Amino acid sequence: MRAITAFMNGVTRLNNAIGQWVSYLVFGMFIFILLEVFLRYAFNSPTVWTNELTQLLFGAYAVLSGGYLMAHRGHVNVDLIYSMFGTRVRAVIDIFTSILFFIFTLALLWFGYDMAQESIGNWETSYSAWNPPIWPVKACIPIATALLVLQGIVKLLEDIAIACNLSYYDPEKDKVVEEDPKGEQL
Amino acid sequence: MSIEALTLLFFGSLLFFVFLGLPLAFVLGGVSVVFLYFTWGFDSFYMVASQIWSTMGSFTLVAIPLFVFMAMILERTGVAKDLYRTMHLWFGGVRGGLAIGTLVICAIFAAMVGISGAAVVAMGTIALPAMLARGYDRSMCLGVINTGGGWGILIPPSIMMILYALISGVSVGKMFAAGVLPGILLMVLTAIYILIRSNLQPHLAPALPPEERGTMREKLVALRSIALPVLIVFMVLGSIMGGITTPTEAAAMGVLGSLIAAAVYRKLDLPLLKEASVRTFKLTGMIMWILFAAHAFSAAYQSMGAQALIEGFMTHIPGGPWGIIIAMMLITFILGMVLDPVGIMLITLPVFLPIVESLGFDPIWFGILFVINMEIGYMTPPFGFNLFYLKGIVPPGITMKDIYKSVIPFVIVEIIGLAILMIFPEIVTYLPDLLF
Amino acid sequence: QETITWKVQSHWPGASSSYKDSLGRLKDQIEERSDGRLKLQLFEAGSLFKAQETFNAVSRGILEMGTISPSYASDKMSLAGIASGLPFAFRNVWEAAYFHQVLGFEEMLREEAAQHGVYYSTDKVYPTEMVVKEPIESWEDFTSLKIRSSGALQKFLTEAGAAASYIPGGELYTALDSGIVDGAHWGAAQGAYSMALYEIAKYHVQPALNIAGTDAIIVSQKALDKLPADLQKLVKDVLQEQFWYRTNEYQYKERVTLAKAIEEEGVKINTLPDDVQDRLVQVAQEMWDEEGKRSDNAAEALQMLKDYLGKLGYL
Ligand code: NA
Ligand code: NA
């Protein structure tokens, strides 16, 4: 049981840490676009690399958000019928619908891995004027999906604990950790 | 299995799982995978990964984190709060004044962005708490932001119009020009609705009590607080119109403006930037994972032969040319409830456009109707991107039910607008005829 | 009798003339000549796979057929760079056609693609030409230009001294209109016309930046092998005819479209001054050698090209 709790906390911490760091990429996108505008407008010398680098940063940024959002309940859902039930019924429903979650994410993991492996195999570059390596960003797809799957397993374990009243997960304790210091949902 | 039966199953299971509370992104992705398996086999899952890779590579989407980041900074520094305080001082005497002010800001925002998600999230962050704090009805606030935030694709620049132009072969410039008056019409209609509604039911959008409206002096002093927002709008719009940036790049100017504003407010510090970037990450991630899955979903639906279904439909429409146009609007509207706009365009336009032209209708006029319909699709339950984006930012007390309910009157207003444009096509064609 | 349906992903949007003229023709020809035994189900650009992903999808056999620009297969085919056009190499379309079909370049491409389970066939060869807002009358005019470009040509234009930047197709019109860029290339006359670029840029620049087999049709070898022998032959024959038919027809339509743009939009032809052309050719030739370094295949193709251009008296 203790191993399960450790696993759950470990995965959540991992996703939190990664999310924290990746969230700063927005500064990179901002600065590179601004630089491009500045160089093009003021010096009439646009670069071949700023927009493409921004694009690559954005790709990694967007896809890597998956696990972090999962840990923070940030993937938006419809709570219309859902909110009429109590915690335990919801947990049971979530266990049922997680089938679809795993079908999607495991398919994505499989083929994302396949895609990334091929890309890394020939150190794929973009063949643009700048021609940077793009395999690291492609590799982000399976990495991000793996993080999402792990967090999905954590969620499933939580739901099982709630549904079956198991002791390895305490939703009350978790709530305190989850809550934002400023008391907002984000 | 026939495409008709597949369609029912496909959308049926979509709704089933959405209402069971599974996050939208996973419903869309999961349902796509299951159906791809039964129609095309295991190897076709590659399409899902491939669609995600393609979406990661769409440069126009870079505007989303930037505009959201801008909004997060503006909200935290107090710029947004001061803006609303000023608006309240000036227009607070009018019932619904703040809501109309929000619509105007939405329209300005729409002129700055070519996509929809950024505006909804940004305006939701800025305007929703400000209006709620001043006693505005929840439904009123949500409806206004949902409608106004969606105008990004109707008021130029608009990615949707460019896409329409690419598929239909009409001029982009004419499409842009054609969108201006309808955009204003929708704004006026929505404002009229707010005025009528808030005068019939004052508690929905209360006026500021006379004793709190402030003296002229106070009002003038408060005007200072709009200087920074105006500066930001000027930086963004000015750089688009002045040929300095593309609309996507202009988002970075917006961030620059908001950072300047934060510095002026002496709030520019590391904790602020840190918090803004984390919030931006969450909201952008929410939007992007929905888009990832939505693109996979429409690709899956198209691979099953969606176009053939629409073609089949169109051969059985009674009622002459207008019957056909109205049927097309209905199909778009219904697809708009469940599919992403780009998918709808790719599925329907190749079928619709030859018919529209053979009936002698103006493809530009049809394009505007189509884009408005698409915009309505963004905000109609059960599935509309704006609804979900809004859900992602509202305070915990507000449920999806509140959001669903809030849009109904606003959708009706937009449909009235659509009907007006069908009856008076000149509203659409006047500007393009004048300018080109 | 058994009917086989192939899913075909295009890299052209529906409004692009090539969607009907190339893909539509291919569909009609194959369906008619096979008496409906082989059918093509067409998908517009981006419907199932993004253009850059189509080669992978066909290579994996998920799609039976697709259309691409060779540059989208750059990571798989070392000849892609030469196939999608070395700047200022050919001066006439027929020269490029002869290079492909008679001198054996097409065969080389086919061999490279075959290693990825893909049957490669060039749809047509045609020029890529720029439109600009102000005419280019001197080298200074050229180097002060801001041009929307992409891929190898972006590198070429940059190295030649112009300010070339990549702007996505969706924002091209707005960018050109507001003056973020002063010029752009999107195919040649038909491309510029379809993107409404002539509304805002009135000078059509000649000669072409390059002439090349910029559109190609790819078929999954797996799908091809599954066909009965007579249908396999039929598909290959139709593709072979397609090259000549479309190369010619495209030339014709280019001229018609340009004439229409001149008539309706007041477009003028801007022929680059000789000294500008000479300097561009110089820069271009340095770039060719870069392409030759990609592989033994590429080196061989480049040598073949140089010998050919020598015979034509251009080198
Ligand atoms: Na807009
Ligand atoms: Na909808």
TrEMBL record, chain A:
Q: Does the keyword Iron apply?
A: no
Q: Which GO terms describe its cellular component?
A: plasma membrane
In what way does this protein cross or attach to the membrane? Multi-pass membrane protein
Molecular function terms in GO for this entry? transmembrane transporter activity
The record, for InterPro entries, names: DctQ, TRAP_DctQ
What transmembrane ranges does the database entry give? Answer: 21-41, 53-71, 91-113, 133-150
Q: Provide the alphabetized UniProt keywords.
A: Cell inner membrane, Cell membrane, Membrane, Transmembrane, Transmembrane helix, Transport
Q: Principal place where this protein is found?
A: membrane
Pfam families for this protein? DctQ
Q: Any idea where the Tripartite ATP-independent periplasmic transporters DctQ component domain is?
A: 29-160
Its quaternary organisation is:
The complex comprises the extracytoplasmic solute receptor protein and the two transmembrane proteins.
Q: Which PANTHER family match?
A: 2,3-DIKETO-L-GULONATE TRAP TRANSPORTER SMALL PERMEASE PROTEIN YIAM, SLL1102 PROTEIN
Its function, per the record, reads: Part of the tripartite ATP-independent periplasmic (TRAP) transport system.
**Family label:** Belongs to the TRAP transporter small permease family.
Annotated protein name in UniProt: TRAP transporter small permease protein
Q: Which organism is it from?
A: Marinobacter daqiaonensis
Origin organism lineage? Bacteria, Pseudomonadati, Pseudomonadota, Gammaproteobacteria, Pseudomonadales
TrEMBL record, chain B:
- Claim: Phosphoprotein is one of the keywords in the record: no
Where do the TM regions start and end?
7-40, 52-74, 86-111, 117-136, 148-170, 176-196, 221-244, 280-302, 322-352, 364-383, 403-424
Principal location class:
membrane
Statement: the UniProt record of this protein carries the keyword Nucleotide-binding = no
What are the GO cellular component annotations? Answer: plasma membrane
Q: How does it sit in the membrane?
A: Multi-pass membrane protein
| Residue ranges annotated for the TRAP C4-dicarboxylate transport system permease DctM subunit domain, each copy included | 11-427
Report the function annotation for this chain: Part of the tripartite ATP-independent periplasmic (TRAP) transport system.
Q: Which family does it belong to?
A: Belongs to the TRAP transporter large permease family.
Q: PANTHER family recorded for this chain?
A: SIALIC ACID TRAP TRANSPORTER PERMEASE PROTEIN SIAT-RELATED (PTHR33362), SLL1103 PROTEIN (PTHR33362:SF7)
State the protein's name. TRAP transporter large permease protein
* Species annotation: Marinobacter daqiaonensis
